[in-house]
Amino acid sequence: MITNFFMITTKWLPCWVAPGNPGCGRARSERLSVRIVVAMDTGSNIGEYLRARRELMRPEDVGLPDLGSRRTIGLRREELAMLAGISVDYYLRLEQGHDPHPSENVLEALARALQLDKDATAHLYQLARPKPPRRRFPGHAERVQPGIKRLLATWSDTPAYVQSRFLDVLAANPLATALSPIYRPGVNILRALFLDPGVRSYYPDWEKITSATVGSLREIAGPDVDDPRLTDLVGELSVRSEPFRRLWARHDVRARRCGTSVIDHPQVGPLELRFEKLSISGGTGQLLVIKHADPGSGTAQALALLASMIAKDDGIHEHSSQYDEQLADEHRGD
Question: What domains sit in the chain, N to C, each tagged with a CATH number?
Answer without folding.
Answer: 6-128 (1.10.260.40), 146-313 (3.30.450.180)
